């Protein structure tokens, strides 16, 4: 076995110096690898923690959304008017409805297309009522409605299947929402009752013929 003295002498030779430098480099490399492993493990732990926290947040947000939708569906719409026992006969003549816009009753055998359809001119009420029978929400407005509200409603309807929109010059209020047997006047497109009405009545429980087509009917 080499003595400590011989070892020190060996380090002073060129070969010993190279060996010492090699050992030092290996030591530094091992230290670097340990730091990398520690950093990798720490990052992995942080990612997992973030995913867990993010997943929890998303689940909580989804739960909150579900609860809000359920509440919207089960809570009454403030100011809503309701009609029961509406006729559903198919007729080929004009119908004198007791409410304007109509929310049900006898109607034309052809429905108005209501697959996110926005009409800029008045449409036959008898065809629109058939759309309500299929579970559509009908947005109507008169000349007193603000352009900003008309644009906002157009955007909402154009992205919502089972809904349609059209002007009705002789309706009482500027902005009205109708479904089969249901109707409400709203103040603006941002009125919170708008979202509730859509959530509750687009293919809602009031629909006499749920799942019936909203396309393939009258388109103008």
Automatic annotation (TrEMBL):
Q: What is this protein called?
A: DUF3105 domain-containing protein
Q: What is the lineage of its organism?
A: Bacteria, Bacillati, Actinomycetota, Actinomycetes, Kitasatosporales
Give me the segments passing through the membrane: 36-60
List compositional bias (Basic and acidic residues) regions by residue number.
Answer: 20-32
Q: Which organism is it from?
A: Streptomyces finlayi
One Pfam family from the UniProt entry?
DUF3105
InterPro entries assigned to the protein according to its UniProt record, in alphabetical order: DUF3105
Keywords in alphabetical order? Membrane, Transmembrane, Transmembrane helix
Location of the region described as Disordered in the Swiss-Prot/TrEMBL record: 1-35
